[in-house]
Amino acid sequence: MNIGYSKFMAIKAVIFDGGGVVVEWQETFRRFSRLIKVDYNALLQAYLRFAPEPEIGKQSFDWHLQMTMKDVGQIDRWRELRQIVPKGFTRIEPTFQLLKELQGKFKRALLTNADLGVKEELDQYIDYLKYFEVVIDSSVVKLRKPGAEIFYLTCKSLSLRPKECLFVDDFIENVAAAEKLGFKTIHFKDPVSSVKLIRKTLYEKI
């Protein structure tokens, strides 16, 4: 298909969530849950429940994993989880193909709710931060999605208005928050169809 950048589109930047859009992280937890014979959903929900404080830099990543494992009754195995998180996370390849394609056509931003230091550690394994002109890390700026402040900070860093940005996230509450602020949004549900939808939104035949 012959597609090119549409000069008529108002979108000037794509803002990507990290985990679930750029990086696959849940499969690592799924494998670990099988290893320790704990229900995966219980492990996942515990991890998400203790995320808010580490994601604004108030607690360490180790604390986050300790509390997660304590919640599922396996506190003595938290170091095993630490050995594979985030080391076991992988690239979502369709997203990386898109990131390369967008270079020089749209600004690319990473807006991630992340524990302090995790993105830098992960970058050693999957070399992903270089694909973004702007990186907003919740644990560094002490703000997190779905709060409005972190979205506005991202726009300020891009020197753009919300309506000039396409925001992509796998958590519907973050998508809904961005949409209320005037962003164009896409709920990232699976890599192939979601990346196809991003392209459809950004490009047209010329």
UniProtKB/TrEMBL annotation:
A Pfam family that the UniProt record links to this protein: Hydrolase
Residue runs in coiled coils: none
Xref: SUPFAM superfamilies: HAD-like
InterPro entries linked to this entry: HAD-like_sf (IPR036412), HAD-SF_hydro_IA (IPR006439), HAD_sf (IPR023214)
Region forming the signal peptide: none
Domain of life: Bacteria
Gene3D superfamilies per the UniProt record, alphabetical: HAD superfamily/HAD-like (3.40.50.1000)
NCBIfam families recorded: HAD-SF-IA-v3
Protein name (database record): HAD family hydrolase
Source species of the chain: Candidatus Beckwithbacteria bacterium CG22_combo_CG10-13_8_21_14_all_01_47_9
